[in-house]
Design goal:
four-stranded antiparallel sheet, 4 strands, 44% helix, alpha+beta, 205 residues, 24% strand
């Protein structure tokens, strides 16, 4: 019978030899140089640059918005000139602008109206506020927007122009009426200012 202590030492020595040989076999390449593991920053050899470009192109194609309806062509032109344009984002802003402008007009708040309106529109509304104040006529306030949708769109040079058809309920405390109008918003797509201004207002049928 072997001494148990000697037997344990023999087994430990054998294990040490086996582990050292495994290290030599797995830790070195065929040319006796340490095996280099690829880092996360390295591009896998099986993905060619052409494949990466194709993937980016497919991703860009998926992310590109699809415009529908009668204004689709104009919206597409605007997007091509300014890739930050979003029809959904524009409509959200157009509804907010309608609420702000109608409310400012009802209050006679020229300071709020001035940066939101084109010169011609501002002058016409400024005259209307002056006439209303002189006559003592009550101002109609916005009760709710019943409908707001893009009527048409176009790109004239660098000037984007979008027409919105609004239907809104207005009231002065005694009388309620429905306003149907087409508002035209414009913006120079080459300008750093992302804001649109009201360029024209027409009655709609």
């Amino acid at each position: 019978m072997f001494d148990p202590v000697i037997e344990v030492l023999v087994l430990a020595a054998v294990a040490l030899i086996v582990l050292s040989r495994l290290y030599l076999a797995l830790g070195r390449g065929g040319n006796d140089r340490p095996v280099q593991r690829p880092t996360s920053s390295q591009t896998p050899r099986d993905v060619a640059p052409a494949d990466l470009a194709e993937r980016r192109e497919r991703r860009d194609h998926v992310e590109r918005p699809i415009f529908t309806g009668p204004a689709a062509g104009g919206l597409e032109d605007i997007y091509n000139a300014d890739n930050s344009f979003s029809a959904a984002g524009f409509m959200q802003g157009a509804k907010t602008a309608y609420q702000m402008i109608v409310a400012a007009f009802a209050r006679g708040d020229r300071d709020t109206l001035r940066p939101l309106l084109d010169d011609d529109v501002y002058e016409a509304w400024d005259d209307a506020i002056t006439a209303r104040d002189a006559s003592g006529e009550k101002a109609f306030v916005l009760l709710r927007i019943k409908r707001a949708e893009i009527d048409s769109a176009e790109l004239d040079g660098s000037m984007a122009r979008i027409m919105i058809r609004y239907e809104a309920e207005l009231g002065d405390g005694e009388i309620t009426r429905t306003a149907r109008e087409v508002w035209t918003f414009v913006r120079d797509v080459t300008a750093s200012d992302p804001n649109w201004i009201l360029d024209d207002v027409e009655a709609a049928s």
